[in-house]
Design brief:
With 455 residues, this protein is of the alpha/beta class. The chain has helices at residues 63-68, 70-74, 122-139, 155-166, 216-221, 224-227, 267-277, 293-301, 312-324; strands at residues 24-29, 33-35, 40-43, 57-60, 79-84, 93-102, 105-115, 140-150, 171-178, 193-200, 211-212, 238-239, 243-244, 283-286, 304-309, 330-334, 346-349, 353-356, 361-372, 389-395, 402-404, 406-409, 421-427, 432-440, 445-452. An 11-stranded mixed β-sheet has the order 13-9-10-8-5-14-15-4-16-1-21, sandwiched between helices. Helix 3 (122-139) packs parallel to helix 4 (155-166) and helix 7 (267-277) crosses helix 8 (293-301). The longest helix has 18 residues, at 122-139. The termini are far apart. 36% of the residues are buried. The mean pLDDT is 89.
Length: 455
């Protein structure tokens, strides 16, 4: 018999508004990156056509709306594992600071990421999280699990919610992720661990044991001296316990993994959780996606993924990350065209130069003449308009939604020159609508379209 102990607060039992939504695909990405570092990047062949379908989806917008309408965008497929790293009620407005330009001419830019402030304190926080956890439960497959990453601010409240929604009998683990780093409090011990709460939908959940290397002393001594001849060391290592000290936070601002997104979690941590609680081919979701770590991990581990976030910076950071790491194709959907598409920004394309190569092909020199953010009167001293562009994409056959077939990035994010031209070899045929989309360093998107009718 399930016990009736539960967490209550003012407004808990209010009826949550049901949002009927019509989802629209706003972009489909076939990752084909080019690391342009000068005025030109030469691409000699037309990129391959984008697939009609993809298993990987980025849901841009309020996760509650997507969770209330899962069948509309996910079909009949359930989710096998949900990992979320929601806000912790820290009372912080998180932002990201970056430096753009060359060493001889730099400027610092501050970008908002998300806020973790709640008008009515704990009541508002619980009002946000409670219905979302309920909806996540409904989206899980029979063997599914949810893993919720929290810290000392709210772990006890969140665990009570999970007990109520999933049942105390379906609690699997409370994993203590221990990490180092600075701290200067003289009123309490430094708070240097997070809680990772794992609950299953039923007793028939997926669990793949994980192992850690034996210590050098254990390797030298072995187990036979302690436990007798019947015991041997496992080839895989020692079975992992529920406190992890071998993965540290991303502490250095210059760490190779650091994407300048606050609250970003290390890949190795997410890899371990995905490996333990899912199988190859599983669908795995993160409804507070942040920097998109889960998607990169799933690509490497043969899982299908779903990301969801309402932060423009989270979307842009994730898309950049997926392009840079050579992701399998994915699409971006939204409830409406709410993407930060800042058409008040000035994006002017160069007049394309077209030359015929043979009977079936022509060469087009395609490029950006100028990009001018609306709130910037002119480039900073010694800078270029490309300093404000993080990356740009091309759709060679634009029709309502953007189909990204190739992307131009810097060799080093935010640093050094970015190519503003691309040379493309295309097949002759019908007139084309070519679109160029710029993603700027403030997480704005701006699109310009040209018609091309080569003779």
């Amino acid at each position: 018999m399930r016990q009736s102990v539960e967490l209550t607060w003012a407004g808990k039992n209010k009826t949550e508004e049901k949002h009927e939504a019509c989802f629209r695909e706003i972009e489909r990405v076939q990752v084909n990156p080019f690391w342009g570092t000068g005025d030109y990047y030469e691409q000699v062949e037309e990129p391959s056509a984008l697939p009609n379908e993809t298993d990987n989806i980025y849901c841009y917008g309020d996760n509650l709306i997507f969770l209330q309408n899962v069948s509309q965008w996910a079909g009949a497929d359930k989710i096998d594992l949900i990992y979320i790293d929601p806000p912790y009620m820290t009372d912080i407005a998180y932002s990201s600071s970056i430096t753009v330009g060359s060493s001889a001419s730099e400027t610092t830019i501050q970008r908002p990421a998300f806020h973790d402030r709640w008008a009515q304190g704990l009541n508002s926080y619980l009002d946000m999280l409670y219905p979302r956890l309920q909806m996540m439960k409904n989206s899980l497959s029979p063997q599914g699990s949810i893993i919720v990453h929290v810290d000392w601010h709210t772990n006890h409240y969140v665990r009570m919610l999970l007990d109520e929604i999933f049942g105390r009998e379906n609690f699997v683990n409370d994993i203590a992720w221990c990490f180092g780093g600075g701290g200067n409090s003289r009123r309490h011990f430094h708070r240097k661990h997070d809680s990772i709460l794992w609950y299953a939908l039923s007793s028939d959940y997926v669990f793949n044991p994980q192992f850690r290397p034996y210590t050098s002393g254990t390797m030298e001594r072995g187990l036979t001296n302690v436990k007798g001849d019947r015991y041997r060391l496992h080839e895989e290592g020692a079975l992992m316990q529920d406190w992890w000290t071998d993965i540290n936070k991303i502490l250095s601002p210059t760490a190779y993994e650091n994407l300048k997104y606050p609250t970003q979690k290390p890949k190795e941590l997410i890899k371990r959780l995905v490996a333990a609680a899912s199988q190859p081919g599983s669908r795995v979701a993160d409804f507070f996606a942040g920097s998109g770590t889960l998607a990169e991990v799933c690509n490497e581990m043969g899982r299908k993924w779903v990301l969801c976030d309402s932060s423009p910076l989270a979307l842009q950071t994730s898309v950049y990350r997926l392009i840079k790491t050579g992701s399998s194709p994915f699409k971006i959907i939204s409830t409406d065209y709410m993407v930060n598409d800042a058409q008040e920004n000035k994006l002017i394309l160069k007049k394309p130069r077209v030359s015929k190569m043979d009977h079936n092909h022509f060469l087009i020199d395609l490029g950006i003449e100028i990009y001018q953010p609306a709130h910037i009167s002119e480039p900073f001293e010694g800078g270029s308009f490309t300093d404000y562009i993080e990356f740009w994409e091309i759709d060679l056959d634009y029709n309502q939604s953007f189909k990204s077939c190739c992307q131009v990035l810097r060799s080093q994010r935010y640093k050094g020159p970015l190519a503003s031209n691309m040379l493309l070899k295309l097949e002759t045929g019908l007139p084309r609508h070519i679109a160029v989309k710029v993603w700027d360093v403030w997480a704005n998107q701006t699109t310009a379209i040209m018609e091309l009718n080569p003779v």
